[in-house]
Write a structure and sequence with these properties.
Helices cover 16% and strands 41% of the residues. By secondary structure, it is α+β, with helices and mostly antiparallel strands. The strands form two sheets. Strands 1, 2, 3, 4, 7 and 8 form a six-stranded antiparallel β-sheet that branches. The chain has a two-stranded antiparallel sheet with strand order 5-6. The relative contact order is 0.19.
Length: 116
């Protein structure tokens, strides 16, 4: 009975705290560089919140994917408790997540190296 009462009281509180804190990001980019690609080579795209990239990005053998962004809470640069990159394979719909390292300033980054 006690746990049921707690969940009844806590649920509305948690929902309202999630709604009150609107998280997002800006100044974001994604880049992919191959091992043998020189300066200026590879792919670099600007990321816009709630907008897909114009074309899918493929990762090849020995490519490095890097995402840089600034996390915002209520349009102010902030450090979230947790931030993840979620990758999904479209055919099988399998996904996996990778944590971003985020500084107090809200600047975050994740870098993945693909191996064959």
């Amino acid at each position: 009975m006690r746990s049921h009462l707690f969940s009844t009281i806590a649920l509305p509180f948690l929902v309202s705290s999630v709604i009150a804190a609107s998280w997002g990001f800006n100044d974001a980019s994604i880049s992919i560089h191959g091992k043998k690609v020189g300066v200026g080579g590879g792919v670099k795209e600007k990321l816009i919140e709630n907008k897909s990239l114009p074309d899918p990005i493929s990762l090849g053998e020995s490519d490095t994917l890097k995402i840089i962004l600034t996390a915002n809470k209520d349009k102010k640069a902030s450090r979230p408790h947790q931030a993840f990159l979620l990758l999904r394979e479209p055919k099988s719909n399998l996904d996996t997540s990778f944590p971003l390292s985020v500084k107090e300033s809200g600047k975050g980054k994740v870098e993945l190296v693909c191996y064959s």
